[in-house]
Amino acid sequence: MIEIRDLRFRTLHIEHLDIPTGITTVMGRNGSSKTTFLRLCAGIAVPDSGNILIDGIPPRQIDIGWVNEFPDRNMLFSKVCDEIASPLRFRHMPPDETDLAVNNIAKRLGIRHILSRQVHNLSGGEKVLVALAAALVAAPKLVVLDEYDSHLDHERCSQIERLLSGSGCEYVLRCTQQMDTAARSDFLIMLEHGKLAHAGTPTQVFPLLARTLFYPLSWRAGL
Amino acid sequence: MKIVLDRVNVMRDNFSLTAHGEFSDGVHLVSGAVGSGKSTLALAIANVLPLESGSISRCGIESMMLSLQFPEYQVTGLTLADECFSWGCEPAEIFLSSEIQGKEHQSPFTLSRGELKQLHLSCVLNKHYDLLLLDELFSSMDCEKKQKFCSRLSQRTKSITIIFTHEQAILPKVDRIWEIIDGVLHDRGVPPAAIERWCGAPPFIKKLVASGKTPRNISLNEVLEAACRT
Amino acid sequence: MQDVRIRIGAGTLLCCAAFVSLYGAAAVFLWLLIFTPRLQSLRRLRLVIGTVVMIGIISLLLQVINGSGFSYFIRVTVIILIGLWVAGEYQPGDFLNLGVWLLGTGIGFDLGLVAEMGMQSFASLLDDLDRIRLAYSLKRAGLNIKSVIPTGTLLLHLELARAQDNAELLAVRGYRCGGQLTPGFTTSVLDVIAGLSVIVVLLIAVFPFVNFLYFDSELLRGLL
User: Fold this and answer.
1) Integer CA distances (angstroms), B114 to A76, A135, B108, C1, in order
2) Number of domains, chain C
3) ipTM of this model?
4) What is the pTM of this model?
5) Domain range spanning residue B186?
């Protein structure tokens, strides 16, 4: 369980929230502090007060994968293989083990053919896959994705959803503006003006939003 | 007013795009997968990218604007007020429509990405342009803002609006649908017939078409109306 | 030149050779004509021309002050050409490999990482400038004196934002210090020949200087 107690950071304030294992989607209007919340859960930012514990451990003490919204901002290195290998190299893993892990994750994500290419020559979708590979290669406990689908088409989004489901990560925390994607999550969190508005499974949360546009189109259309 | 693409070929890095067709008055949707060439086509029509061959005629077009996919690439002002002025807009009006009052003297980069996109689009739609090119209009925006901008787009008259997007849920009412497949621009025609020919249609629209309930257009209201048909 | 070790080594020695004397600068220029792809390495010609113009102005001043302007112009221009060649031949991963090979997986990796990020930042800076130029043209405003400060501020902001993103990525990916890497290099026969010929260039540069010192000291002894 991810336990959040009396979390405060700038305009974000969450008193009590428990996030189960599986895929959790964070939703909300622009400016509702979704990115702030994700950055706190990833350990990138530190709360002003309160705490976040992932199975009793603070975020900065566990392995976490992070994928930014903008593909170009997820890259440290120019070559795909260097980018994916970076988390393992930083952990001083032996080079042959690193190469094996990189090849394995690239094979799982279907990007072995671009390992030797330069990142800036990739399409937006390929860049997200590379960022995801870099996030998953160290087998993190939690992977956090901040609106990764904002610049992706439907086919690529579906591919990444399948990969996330089969990633082996205990916790996947993502933010999306696609309600049909959110409907396929295990748990939903809705933020409004930095506060927790709703939390629960899709069947618990979405009926509360039936009169708003934050309701899956496929549910509304009965598809 | 019309934009005529006559056997246009554009190159960008190792990618080649071919386009032939005519964009007349109204709202056009150009769809395609990521990397299909939508932004390339937008830059070519905006006369930013040179053509390898062919020609683009902009008949009766006296004013034009291109809205880029990432709003921070079009920021030139040091404050939000300066940014509004750089678009030729009055800040008060823009702040009201973007719901960001009280931040006039802040840097544009203090806004969240969705708020910056909203500000940017408010500035763009505040003025009349004979030709308006919108590259990934909906990226980084929440559902309510998407619907709000769809409504504003439908109010544009006596102009050509071309929307380049891979948005799958909330879309505006359009007069013509195009799509780019394998580096070639295809004209699917006028809705509702165009919707049936649209290979890259959103999944829920494809399901409606498959069940014989083709929507009259692709806006949210029309899609829901089609879904409710018996 | 594929091998970054030979390239950086050659570049360093060639800079010294060019700086020491006009003979050295001439020999280095000849070396560049023979062993480099010449103008293909000069990817940003406007930047090159701008730099040469700046050196020209300084040279003119030196010529007026103490008559050494011409020599300075030739030598420094050749050094700039060497720098542009080294930068133009850069391949991603070069500095990381070089750093680890030279100084190991601790400080060597860190220095290589810093150099790689520096190269990326420089490339991004030029891309950002192009985007800002486009933004101004779309708003029907050109880049002029009035836009220097906003443009500079924007570039600074974008670079800082990029640095922030990089710092966050490094932290999240577990970077503490150093990293494990087996450096890999590709060395061709031409690289070796070009590298060895740098020694010849160095001799040509230094010989007149040594000669000058020898003859001058002989003359001095003679006079005394």
Assistant:
1) 25, 24, 12, 46
2) 1
3) 0.87
4) 0.85
5) 2-63+129-194
